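Appendix B. Extra example for self-study. Work through it before the problem class; the solution is given directly after the inputs so you can check yourself.
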Amino acid sequence: MTNPKPVLEARNIDKYFYNPKKVQVLKKVNFVINRGEFVSVVGKSGCGKSTLLYILSTMDTDYDGELLIDEESISGKPQNQLARLRNEKIGFVFQFHYLLNEFSVLENVLIPGLKLGKYSREELEHRAMEKLKIFEMEDHALKKANQLSGGQKQRVAVARALINDPLIIMGDEPTGNLDKKNSDIVFEEFKKLAKEFGQTMLIVTHDPEFAEGTDRTIEMEDGRVI
Amino acid sequence: MSWKLIIEIAQALMLARMKQTLIAAIGVTFSITMFVSLLGFMNGLNTLLDGLILNRTPHVRFYNQIKPNPNQPIDQVIDPESTWNVIRSIKPSNSRLSIYNSESIIKTLEGDSRVKGISTKVSAQVFYNVGSIDLNGLVNGINPEKETELFFFDDYVTTGNPLDLNQSNSIILGKGVADRILADIGDVIQVTTAQGSQLRLKVVGYYQSGLADFDNVNSFASISTVQKMLGESNSYLTDIQVKLWDFNGAPEFANDYRDIFGIEADDIQTVNAQFETGSSIRSLISYAVGITLLVVSGFGIYNILNMMIYEKLDTIAILKAIGFNSSDVKRIFISIALTIGILGGAIGLILGYVTCLGIDQVPFETEALPTVKTFPVDYNPKYYSIGGIFSVITTYLAGYFPARKASGVDPVDIIRGK
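Solution. Structure tokens for the complete assembly:
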């Protein structure tokens, strides 16, 4: 937080939906997220916060305006470069955990690392176990993903997001699908990441309690940041 | 991008859908098995049927034909270019059937690098004398070693040893002839030549080609026996049979020498055109059936991969979200298709070979084909490589379109849709 270097910057982002008729869902969205910040985006459902997250995550490229990640403009870059960038610099946590059910917990955490190819497999396995340990999931490493409970899956998903030491972790209602108890556990883990590891995070949520625990809250209404 | 990871993911996806993957692979296996065994069997039959004629037919045959002299005396006196000479009742000249200067012709032919071997022949019109009955026939004077080497003569000698012909005054009778004159091995028969000389010959074997008309007339003896029968010298030869390394070169070869030697030269293609046509049509049909089978199994793979992609939309979306690009996703699904194709195809090739071995054991005995005891099968590696290549190509194509669809999945749609 002492380092004011911007990690993510949105400049005048507009987004339209065309089906069934043209609707503007994002109106001139501007904000900056600096390294080490733990930011939440809140707003009523339908205010465009998930849409914004998909744009920020580079998966949705159909928008107007400019997006900078790591002080580099990524608007208009080819899909392959964006995929590489996602792999290297962005970690994801989705609402419905989205682990690959065909693989074990450990492999799920490993795959983005293997894709990046920066470390050898042995080294990655070691790193993956380290990440799982943060969330006390190391005992489940060899289970199949679909043998875990929802809360456990979400913790594995966070571990997976961390494997490549991303610049920023983005979460789309990561606690939205969990009961109170699990939701608290996951929330505690996010806080731990922010405090102990200084991890930059941007979390979309509609849970005011969650938002209160973050460094900064970006509030959205009707496609605008207020 | 590491293929190892892509293959690992492809493998996990296949294991998760083991049953479907197996069904797709079995489809490929079945079609390749059928393809290989069908072609092997069909071409075995082709080779056998063609061999009936082609094996023992010389690629090029040189002989003298009795025909009118093309240079009539009047043409040398009055130029036929400027006038119209009409001659009635031209008769063939009293030319010999034997080949002039045969020794030097043989020497020339032996010097040609296209020639695999040469076998000479003397044929003589005879009557087989049985009591008071004379049966029309043809005795071929041959060199049994050469004839065996070049034209598989021994395959058609059903009883007796072809080399026994080297004893003078011995004969191998056509099966039809032997049946009609009731001659057993060891019997002595009498033949009369067209010129009237008579000779007694000892029967040392039977010859059966499978073509009844041929076997009813033809018999074989050594060249010297027939020369003696005709009262001719040992330079008397009526046919020079040439086998070439490449039988497709036969027409050209015949053309090259026809005018040089001034004798008739027949090539195998002209004489037996219909056999070529028959075999190529049969091969065509078996290829068509085999490829149809492969295409059908290709559709099977296409369907199964399509289903897999619908089931795995989540997986595809998540892979894309964590940094796999479109071509990585495409590679994953193409790897699945190719794995199915290669594994299914390889097992299919093995099973096809086994099926061929099985067909090869089925008894198939027929009067016409004395040397054949079981169904003929062609084990030409060509069919195996074609089968293998086609299985890979069809599965690649069957995988390509679903894979392209998978690579076009928009992760936002899937993740938002939940």
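Self-check: Strands of chain A lie at 6-17, 23-34, 38-43, 64-69, 72-73, 90-93, 168-172, 200-204, 216-221, 224-225. If your reasoning did not lead you there, revisit section 3.
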